[in-house]
């Protein structure tokens, strides 16, 4: 004869209470758990240095939430450094326990980024990924082991049949509607770039009210503009009332790109700039481009800038002083290093600001290869796909200010480089040929800046004039190509 239901329930309840007492022996049918500090412990995963001496990153979005299970190489979050956007992946399997930052927060390199319940034996390499914070969390890890063990044993009791009115009520409550809405808001808020969130704040909008049309529901700039336009159409306030309302000042933090520009340009104030400008007749280059276009492969486009970069590289063979780096860490003993490779930073205007990725070994590339590299970097920059390594190692910078309509410019040198050239927009101007006949020619201005501490004005002028000569007679490039 089986025990009455009430007696059975009391027996199960007593059994559960006994399990909560650490000093009592466990029944034999319960599973034994590993008590090692390296298994089933919650440890913080530190934000590693992503290169170039970066000390902080802006957190763009989380790909996980607390309670989510992740495997090795699963994406955890996306961060924006001073130069590029990087996706951080999990180095091991586990369960997400805590996120240390919210979207838009500045995450510090070497500090905890996320807490992960690691449910596996950790190798020494994995321990190194956790950093010193992993050792500091050992005490809390043992406590979490015991709590997890008790929670698992409670689930086993309930699985045996203690349910309905006879079960012990769980102390874990479901999140309230307000908390659920807050979590949803955080998720939606992460699906937008800093530039879009800045635009949303500027219009004093709520991202939850905007329908995102991007990937995974990401809110795009066009979505915000469309929402603003629709709001203006439905606004019922008189225009006179709107005109009477004065706009308030707004204080906003610098974006990562602006922050990097602020630091770099502040350092550049210590550099005495020697400025030199010259105009080149690009008529012959334009004629050559038209011939090449007729036989070019689909999608292949060779711009003026590819010819200019090759001409600068050829000029540096005769004038290596401008392809150098100045080390001023010890002001009493500055060092000048002549660079063997021509790694040219190319300034690209993007929605996030000016980015300067690097085309490497220009001296070894053909004009067609330079053009292909520029297309690839420009596309990656505008799609936010550049990696930190794409920005390192520049020995000289080419700034195409002509892409936005400029002519003459005073470009600013980025240390430790000692030179930069600004490329203006080409335009048709009247001129006289050798027979005093009025003709049209395509003129383009090149504006040079050199570090006058190590580069004298005559050397900069000679290099600039050599580039002009090569551009005005492209056949001379063939003589010096290797």
UniProtKB/TrEMBL annotation:
Domain spans labelled Lipoyl-binding: 42-117
Organism's domain of life? Answer: Eukaryota
What InterPro entries does the database record attribute to this sequence?
2-oxoA_DH_lipoyl-BS (IPR003016), 2-oxoacid_DH_actylTfrase (IPR001078), 2-oxoacid_DH_E2_comp (IPR050743), Biotin_lipoyl (IPR000089), CAT-like_dom_sf (IPR023213), E3-bd_dom_sf (IPR036625), PSBD (IPR004167), Single_hybrid_motif (IPR011053)
Provide the E.C. number(s) assigned to this enzyme: 2.3.1.-
User: Which residues are in coiled coils?
Assistant: none
TM helices/strands, residue ranges: none
Segments carrying the region annotation (Disordered) are: 130-195, 228-249
CC annotations in GO: mitochondrial matrix
Q: Where is the Peripheral subunit-binding (PSBD) domain?
A: 191-228
The UniProt entry, under PANTHER family, shows: DIHYDROLIPOAMIDE ACETYLTRANSFERASE COMPONENT OF PYRUVATE DEHYDROGENASE COMPLEX, LIPOAMIDE ACYLTRANSFERASE COMPONENT OF BRANCHED-CHAIN ALPHA-KETO ACID DEHYDROGENASE COMPLEX, MITOCHONDRIAL
- State the protein's name: Dihydrolipoamide acetyltransferase component of pyruvate dehydrogenase complex
């Amino acid at each position: 004869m089986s025990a009455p239901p009430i007696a059975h329930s009391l027996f199960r309840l007593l059994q559960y209470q006994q399990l909560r007492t650490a000093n009592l022996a466990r029944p034999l049918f319960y599973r034994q758990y590993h008590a090692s500090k390296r298994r089933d412990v919650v440890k913080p995963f530190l934000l590693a240095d992503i290169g170039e001496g970066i000390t902080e990153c802006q957190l763009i979005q989380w790909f996980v939430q607390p309670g989510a299970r992740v495997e090795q190489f699963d994406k955890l979050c996306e961060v924006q450094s001073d130069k590029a956007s990087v996706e951080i992946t999990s180095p091991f399997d586990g369960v997400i326990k805590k996120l240390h930052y919210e979207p838009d927060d500045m995450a510090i390199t070497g500090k905890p980024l996320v807490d992960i319940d690691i449910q596996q034996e950790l190798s020494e390499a994995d321990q190194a990924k956790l950093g010193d914070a992993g050792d500091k969390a050992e005490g809390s890890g043992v406590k979490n082991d015991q709590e997890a063990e008790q929670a698992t044993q409670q689930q086993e009791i309930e699985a045996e049949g203690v349910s309905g009115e006879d079960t012990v009520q769980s102390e874990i409550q479901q999140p309230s509607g307000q908390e659920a809405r807050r979590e949803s808001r955080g998720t939606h808020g992460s699906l937008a770039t800093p530039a879009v969130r800045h635009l949303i704040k500027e219009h004093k909008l709520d991202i939850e009210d905007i329908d995102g049309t991007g990937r995974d529901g990401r809110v795009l700039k066009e979505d915000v503009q469309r929402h603003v336009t629709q709001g203006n159409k439905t606004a019922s306030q008189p225009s006179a009332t709107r005109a009477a309302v004065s706009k308030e000042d707004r204080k906003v933090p610098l974006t990562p790109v602006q922050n990097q520009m602020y630091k770099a340009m502040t350092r550049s104030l210590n550099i005495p700039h020697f400025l030199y400008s010259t105009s080149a007749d690009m008529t012959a280059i334009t004629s050559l481009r038209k011939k090449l276009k007729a036989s070019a492969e689909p999608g292949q486009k060779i711009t003026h800038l590819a010819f200019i970069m090759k001409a600068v590289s050829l000029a540096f063979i005769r004038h290596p002083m401008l392809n150098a780096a100045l080390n001023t860490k010890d002001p009493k003993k500055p060092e000048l290093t002549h660079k063997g490779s021509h790694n040219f930073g190319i300034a690209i205007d993007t929605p996030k600001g000016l980015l300067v990725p690097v085309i490497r070994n220009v001296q070894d590339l053909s004009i067609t290869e330079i053009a292909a590299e520029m297309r690839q970097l420009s596309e990656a920059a505008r799609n936010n796909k550049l990696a930190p390594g794409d920005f390192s190692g520049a020995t000289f910078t080419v700034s195409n200010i002509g892409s936005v309509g400029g002519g003459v410019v005073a470009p600013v040198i980025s240390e430790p480089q000692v030179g930069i050239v600004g490329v203006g927009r080409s335009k048709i101007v009247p001129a006289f040929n050798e027979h005093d006949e009025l003709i049209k020619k395509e003129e383009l201005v090149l504006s040079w800046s050199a570090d006058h501490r190590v580069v004298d004005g005559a050397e900069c002028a000679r290099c600039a004039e050599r580039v002009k000569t090569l551009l005005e007679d492209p056949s001379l490039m063939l003589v010096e190509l290797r």
